[in-house]
UniProtKB/TrEMBL annotation:
Pfam families hit by this protein: UPRTase
Identification of the protein by name: Uracil phosphoribosyltransferase
Molecular functions (GO terms): glycosyltransferase activity
UniProt keyword list: Glycosyltransferase, Plastid, Transferase
Name of the gene encoding the protein in the UniProt record: upp
Length: 193
């Protein structure tokens, strides 16, 4: 397995992810919504830190030059996620990335893959679009089918895709690593099951 796995180990991220993991075991946590929002922002920040292209714009004023940083206009994002499970994680992302499309897909259901992927057929994925697949817990082999679908049906290159998850199952990562060794995955914790 030569998969590019980035385990985010910042102390704040560790504390927040631990809260999310333990809240999955408990039925109620009053800070859960805020915790999800913050961990989502921090994980997306880590992904975008090296991935996002910023253009410098210089505006000549009478007495000085003003420098403005803007997102490259050619850059757009698609977030594929189960909105029912990750809505608190992605709430602020749309504000940070205005040219972002959201696509709901449920990787944990028992329906056939074509039922879920029919919605993705409606989206035009250009070669410049950057795709983030966000899962709270990466514990399902259907993620592999989704990546295969994006590559075969939508002609998406593997460098256009990043996976973001609070926790990742090592068996699933091994399988992904065999099929997609150049894929980048960002997580806070690896879980052996």
């Amino acid at each position: 397995m030569q998969l590019n796995i980035y385990i985010i180990s910042h102390p704040i991220i560790k504390i927040l992810s631990n809260t999310i993991i333990s809240s999955a075991l408990n039925t109620y946590n009053k800070f859960s919504s805020q915790t999800h929002k913050y961990i989502g922002l921090l994980l997306v920040y880590e992904v975008l830190r090296k991935w996002m292209q910023i253009k410098n714009l210089y505006i000549k004023k009478i007495n000085y030059i003003k420098e403005v940083h803007i997102i490259d206009s050619q850059e757009s994002y698609l977030i594929i996620t189960n909105l029912l499970h990750t809505y608190n994680i992605i709430t602020e992302i749309k504000i940070l990335l205005p040219d972002t499309e959201l696509q709901h897909i449920d990787l944990n259901n028992n329906k056939s893959f074509t039922d879920d992927y029919n919605n993705i057929k409606l989206i035009n994925i250009e070669s410049t679009k950057k795709i983030m697949i966000i899962e709270k817990f990466l514990d399902n082999y259907k993620i592999i089918d989704l990546i295969k679908y994006l590559q075969v049906e939508k002609n998406v290159k593997i460098h256009q895709i990043k996976i973001i998850s609070v926790t990742c199952n090592t068996k699933i990562l091994e399988k992904i690593g065999q099929m997609y060794p150049n894929l980048n995955i960002y997580t806070t914790k690896l879980i052996n099951n």
